[in-house]
Amino acid sequence: MKKVQKFIKQVSDFSQQYKYPKGFDQKIFQGFLKAFYSENTAHDFADYAIEELHNSALTSFNFFSIRESKGVKISVRDAVAKKDDLKSLYTLIDIVNDDMPFLVDSVVAYLDRFGVDIKNIVHPIYSVLRDQDGKLLSISAEKNSQRESLIQI
Fold first, then answer.
1. Quick one: how far is CA 82 from the chain centroid?
2. Model-level pTM?
3. Surface-to-core class of residue 71, CB atoms within 10 Å of its CB (0-12 exposed, 13-18 middle, 19+ buried)
């Protein structure tokens, strides 16, 4: 577990130097980031540069930050190593949903039916507070927070 924490710290340190757009809430992102990779093993990150891990988490955070309805939200995109890189390394799928049993198993079974090769799965569960428009206000365990699942494949 210490090795995973080392990767998370490296990504967090990298994020401290990153230039985010005006209005970006870095405090919420840091909370998101700490949980994002925490259930994985260090081996899961062996083939990725710290910048790739940061960019992957940042893109997922931006996707996760707005959820206008209670239904499922899905994004499919090509990942790149660096901001200006045009070469796609792999495809990422992000799925946001209310937390419930068997989400990962169902998604993996579905993709397996089509022969999709899955390299890695990230699946944090967040307790969140959102405003009436679905904007993420905080990652919190407050009494009125909602548990949401984020799956990244």
1. 17
2. 0.89
3. exposed
